[in-house]
Design a protein that fits this description.
Length: 119
């Protein structure tokens, strides 16, 4: 038996991200094969700095980023349940890393065969 076809879409709490998720759902519903829909929220933190004063600032910014992400993640979970409901099965998870969003998501998806629908 082969692995399911995997579709991954990144979301945040915006209408364009939910539109992208809806498109991913549409792709999955039309497939004539087993699928796995991954909906991912990415928390991209500021990288550590080598200068002591700057590093402390970056850590403080990261605490703020993580705090605001927690609320947005909860909002995304609720919105996805409202918008997708039981239309399709999906897995929602959070990826966290340092740097820009794209490379953080790419690194997270590198371990599997993934068809990326990044929003």
């Amino acid at each position: 038996m082969s692995d399911p076809f995997t579709v991954m879409v990144a979301v945040n709490n915006t209408e364009s991200a939910y539109w992208a998720a809806h498109q991913a759902v549409d792709v999955c519903r039309r497939m004539q094969t087993e699928y796995r829909l991954l909906i991912v929220y990415c928390v991209a933190l500021n990288p550590q700095q080598s200068l002591p004063g700057i590093d402390r600032l970056e850590r403080a910014f990261n605490v703020e980023i993580e705090a605001s992400a927690e609320k947005e993640i909860d909002d995304c979970r609720v919105a996805l349940q409202d918008k997708l409901g039981d239309k399709v099965s999906y897995e929602f998870f959070v990826v966290e890393g340092e740097g820009e969003t794209g490379p953080v998501l790419e690194k997270a998806s590198a371990s599997a065969q993934v068809f990326n629908l990044y929003s």
